[in-house]
Amino acid sequence: MEASNVFVYKLNNPSYPKIPPFHPDKLHPEYRFVETSNEVNYVYNSFRELLYLMGLDKENYNTKNWNPFKNFISPGNLVVIKPNLVLNNPQKQNSLTTHASLIRVIIDFVIIALKRKGEIIIGDAPLQRCDFNELIENSGLRKTIDFYKAKKINIKLVDFRKEMMVVKRNRISNSYKKYKITKLKGDPKGYKIVNLKEQSNLYKISLDDNYKKFRVTNYDPKIMRKAHNHTDHRYFVSNSVLQADTIINISKLKAHRKAGFTGCLKNCIGINGNKDWLPHHRVGAISEGGDEYLEKNYLKKFYEKLINFEDILLIKYPKIHNFLYYLFFFFRAGFLRVLSKIKKNNFLEGSWYGNNTLWRTIADLNQILIYTDKKGKITNTSQRKRFYICDGIISGQSEGPLEPIPVKTGIIAGGYDPLMIDLSLAELMDLNYKKIPQLDRIFKLKKNKISEYNPSDLLIFSNNSNWNIKKLNELTETLNFIPSSGWKKIIKKSNAISSD
Q: What is the residue extent of each domain of the chain?
């Protein structure tokens, strides 16, 4: 199978099972357990069909010897499964995070390949305010992992973060009231600080004092400067990821306010344990060396400084921040109301098509995943096997990744090349990849390439005849996906305008 090929399975019934641990509804020949569910599991059945479509161990399909992962997982391996577990939000969970039922079926095939000899780690670094225990409980992931542990499978579920923001609901606004930063155990295997220095894609925009403009919302910029400055570009990478023999990246298909959309490439953000080491945008207008918004605006400048002050206060003096919470809240609400009256470029925090920072962070972390050895040293050769899956059964359009509108897109995509998969997803979503920096610019990297292919090499295979054996611009049917407001006039093919 060519690594430039991407496989997309279209579900007739785009829905997730509701009963954890999400057993299959029948005893498939290769299935290693005896438990089944009375609930029809379309996800389990469809993922099996996707593996068949990919031609994985096709000669043994539907027999007890079927082992579709045998080419990239061997007995004794450490396998890390990296889902997208960004935030707990029961109302939008299905469009927000990788569904546990898809993780379940993937684990079953990992177990077949390992032959009970090896280790499985499911890990991610969610958003700072995510309550990980609440997320895995509500999603059914905890019960899924408990099922395997009861079967004596060597499996762990790990929160890769080193700290989290404990939050509670505000009675007046029903928004989150932040009140305490708490330390976490993090990855039990530890971390490596990987310093890309001049090899970083952030290097050229960090020279002189430009590195001082790097920001990620809700974090102290002084910590960012220690990680990223004019000489160093450090990332705090999970050791589980670096020690892995195989990485299975299970992304969630969503619109993204700062990156255009999120797929396999963006999902690598979660291999880094400290969120304040991840540049997401640069403060200020384009003419000021920033990419937060297009034109100079004193209102936005003042708002930027206020938010920066609030972030520092929250981290260093949380009790004072709590005391002033309502003042901050009502000012922000009033400011955003005024800003909404400005029809042109009313974007903030780099949430628009001019964001020229986040794609560089995404590229750095993907290069680390591919080329960094177990000791944290960057090499010139791939260090671990990789397999990519995207959960697009229920996707998140419009204001993703945190406030998406759920849409039943009904697809599961798979392959070996994250850039080619994301390119195919953009094509299916009716998006112009040349206007999405994480696609167009990452394709053009000269060293430590994330993909060895060009867009013209992409070939999509699918059970949907309208998508089967199709190249770029050949699809006769798309998902007609809605991007976020800061991107849709630029990247949506059907209504795109010039960004010049």
A: 5-195+239-284+353-495
